[in-house]
Design a protein that fits this description.
about 90 residues; mainly alpha; 5 helices
Length: about 90
């Protein structure tokens, strides 16, 4: 493997070498990843996720959160988006 220190930075927020995370081995045997500071910077999101009854609902909440954070409009979502045309739910994250 080439020496990545010549063209990249070794520090990341997940505590795992980037080469390891990007490897086929990691994809074959995935481990949970924890991004440092994520829960502290978005506590409202995690409170909303904890209240959802299913992974599908968690996905909807996460997608809505990302649209709010990045200012996406319904028209900017992909046409094959499973949630396109669904009723928009206004959620306050805070």
């Amino acid at each position: 493997m080439p020496d990545s220190s010549l063209y990249s930075h070794s520090t990341n927020l997940i505590g795992m070498a980037t080469a390891c995370m990007a490897s086929h081995l990691f994809n074959d045997y995935p481990k949970p990843l924890h991004i440092a500071g994520t829960r502290e910077s978005a506590p409202g999101l995690f409170e909303q996720l904890a209240q959802q009854p299913s992974l599908a609902e968690c996905g909807r909440v996460f997608q809505d959160y990302m649209c709010v954070v990045f200012g996406f409009e319904t028209e900017q979502r992909l046409r094959d988006d499973a949630w396109a045309g669904a009723a928009t739910v206004t959620v306050t994250y805070g």
